Amino acid sequence: MLDMLLSPNGFPFAIALGLFAGLLALELIALVVGGSLFAFDMDADVDLDLDVEADVDLDGDASFLTWLGLGEVPFIMWFASLLAGFGLSGVLIQTGAVALFDAPLPAWGAGLAAVIPGLLFAREVGTLILRFLPRTETSAVPRSQLGRRTGTVTQGTAREDSPAQARVRDRHGNLQYIRVVPAQGEDPIPQGSEILVLTEQNGVFRARKLGA
């Protein structure tokens, strides 16, 4: 395996596994001095507020990113899982190629083939990590960080001049209840609708109905 990683055909996977090892080493050093990279990342999520005026269709993108686990677990944890999944998938792919064809695949071909397994690995590891994340920090999550998350209208119909209640799951997996109105120029959102939360203004969130 080491020979394969050191060859040109294994270069992308050597880089990925090297970065993964580097992150682990930095985490160990941080733990020795009484800190943690992962703990810092949990407290420093990027505010992903979206401009409700944008004309880009965000429904599919937001749902896909949520499915991958982005925003559900600290990014450094997710990225480390992606590096490990991509690197290990590449090693397995090249090992299989040598066994079947007596030669490894080109680096670009094996790299493309390893992307999907790497993403799936990161998603599964993220799901596992999510079960062990502390769930007592919900009140510390800024409301602005609920943007770009999906939810459900639970009470009333959301109109421009009449907010409705919606249920949204925050990055720790806990439920929060917010008031929502439709994105500007969009129709009222009836109770029971799935929504994509956008931006907050004066305690009320703009939301877009999914599947509309």
From TrEMBL:
Transmembrane segments: 12-40, 75-93, 105-122
Domain spans labelled Inner membrane protein YqiJ N-terminal: 11-121
Domain named Inner membrane protein YqiJ OB-fold: residues: 149-207
Pfam short name (any one): YqiJ_N
Keyword Hydrolase among record annotations: no
Signal peptide as annotated in the record: none
Keyword check for Iron: no
Keyword line: Membrane, Transmembrane, Transmembrane helix
The name this protein goes by in its record: Inner membrane protein YqiJ
Organism: Pontivivens insulae
